[in-house]
Every structure is written in C-alpha cells, then in structure tokens.
Amino acid sequence: LIYHDIIIFVAQAQCFFLDIIAFMDYIKIVQPCLTSGWSSWVLLPGNLRWMGFFTMDLKVCNTFHKAGMPV
Asked: Of 15, 28, 32, 25, which Cα lies nearest the Cα of 51?
C-alpha cells in the first residue's frame, strides 16, 4: 500500500468508528427519552457533547428537542 491508501483507510475507519459511537449514544441515551413517555411540558436537559442534527420536519424537530437533543 502506498501512503495515500493508508491515509484513506484510516479516515474511513475513523468515520465508521464515529458512526458506531453515535448510534450507541442514540440507543443508550436518546431512544429511552423518546419511548419513556416523558411529560411534554418539561424539556430534558441537553447534552453539550452532542453536535445536533438538521431536519425540515417540524414534528421530528419538536420530538428530538423535547428529548434534549440539540436541533
């Protein structure tokens, strides 16, 4: 392998690893907030470690905001 191929391989491995970590955070932290039936009048505290997400769907935006996900 040449140096360029090694760099691309490492970058793809890092991307895959970060995807796995994000999915594990979602399953462990966000999904229980979405399925636990929390009160819609009380917002959960946000996690400053998360970057957030973009959406054009107002219902999805409202649901994740109430679960403490930065939108």
From this structure: 25
